[in-house]
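Re: [ENG-882] Designed sequences occasionally contain unexpected residues at chain ends

Forwarding the minimal case from QA. Structure tokens:
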């Protein structure tokens, strides 16, 4: 009979640490909006308290998305 060698599974390998790319030296990671938005929306709708820890965080978005958001904000007003 052949000997079986067992290994202990310790979870996924840790990812490489984020690379600082911001001007203030904070570690940043670029992710697709399609990856982050569903998670943020779920956390918001579920009223997760940890989300408020990031109220003062700044995000970087493309100029195109910013223009669309401004237009959406304007046209969704009840007076518009």
């Amino acid at each position: 009979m052949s000997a079986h060698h067992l290994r202990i599974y310790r979870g996924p390998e840790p990812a490489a640490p984020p690379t600082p790319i911001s001007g203030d030296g904070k570690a940043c990671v670029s992710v697709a909006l399609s990856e982050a938005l569903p998670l943020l929306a779920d956390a918001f709708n579920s009223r997760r308290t940890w989300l408020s820890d990031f109220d003062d965080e700044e995000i970087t978005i493309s100029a195109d998305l910013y223009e669309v958001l401004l237009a959406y904000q304007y046209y969704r007003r009840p007076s518009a």
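QA comment: On inspection the terminal residues look reasonable. The helical segments are 33-45, 63-75. Proposing we downgrade this to a documentation issue.
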